[in-house]
Amino acid sequence: MPLTNVGADALGVITITFVAVLGVVGLLCILYSVYFRDRIRSQRQTQLRYFGGPSVVRIIFILLGIWWGFGELLRLELLRRNGRVLDSLDPKYQETVCKCYIVSNLGFSEPCMFVTLVFLLRASLQNTESGPLSHKWSFKTMVYILLSILPLFALQTAVVLVGPAFETDLHVNKNGYFFKVTTGYPDDPNDVVRCFYPLLSTIFLGVFAGMLTLYLFWLGRQILSRVINKGLRKRVYTFIFCVSCFYPLRVLLLGLSVLFNPGGAVFEVVAFLAFLSLLCCVGVGICILVYFPIADSLALNSLQDLEVARRIVDEHNETLSLIANRGLGGDGYVISQELTQMGSTRLHEWSWRLAS
Question: Nearest CA to 98 among 240, 195, 170, 183?
Answer without folding.
Answer: 195
